[in-house]
Every structure is written in structure tokens, then in C-alpha cells.
Write a structure and sequence with these properties.
five-stranded antiparallel sheet; about 30% strand; about 80 residues; about 20% helix; alpha+beta
């Protein structure tokens, strides 16, 4: 079965995502354990976490043939 998720097409080099090692071509499977299939869902989930006062989100990321891995991303803008 093909993995469902959102392919990262670009990374802001100044963003925390780049510091955490996310790369173009990575597949975001879920954000805070909520499956995502569109970029809008990723943005909405991150925005909801930020509005709820969260300073980070947990992404489940798949890269190539590697196993899925959780990556914490700082969203506080600090």
C-alpha cells in the first residue's frame, strides 16, 4: 500500500523544521497523531496547536524506504 500523507515540497531554511532535519520529499503522515492528506490539513493542525498554546507539534515522517519516525517541531516562533 502506498503511504498516505503530505509530501514536503519546500522547507524554509530559517524554520525549525529545517533544524530538525526535515527535507524536501519527506512524507508527513500525521501531525499530533492526526492523519493528514493535504497541506491545508497540516497548516490547520499546526494553527490549532498554536492557538491552544502548544509550543510544538509532533510529526510522523516517512523518508524513502526508512521506517516512519516521529519528529518534534517547535511552532512557537522562538
Amino acid at each position: 500500500p502506498t503511504a498516505r500523507g503530505v509530501i514536503i515540497t519546500s522547507i524554509d531554511p530559517n524554520a525549525n523544521a529545517a533544524e530538525q532535519g526535515l527535507q524536501r520529499g519527506d512524507l508527513i503522515v500525521s501531525v499530533n497523531n492526526q492523519p493528514v492528506t493535504t497541506p491545508a490539513q497540516v497548516i490547520a493542525t499546526v494553527d490549532a496547536a498554536r492557538k491552544a498554546g502548544r509550543s510544538s507539534v509532533l510529526l510522523l515522517v516517512k523518508r524513502g524506504t526508512s521506517p516512519e519516525a516521529f519528529v518534534g517541531i517547535n511552532i512557537s516562533g522562538q
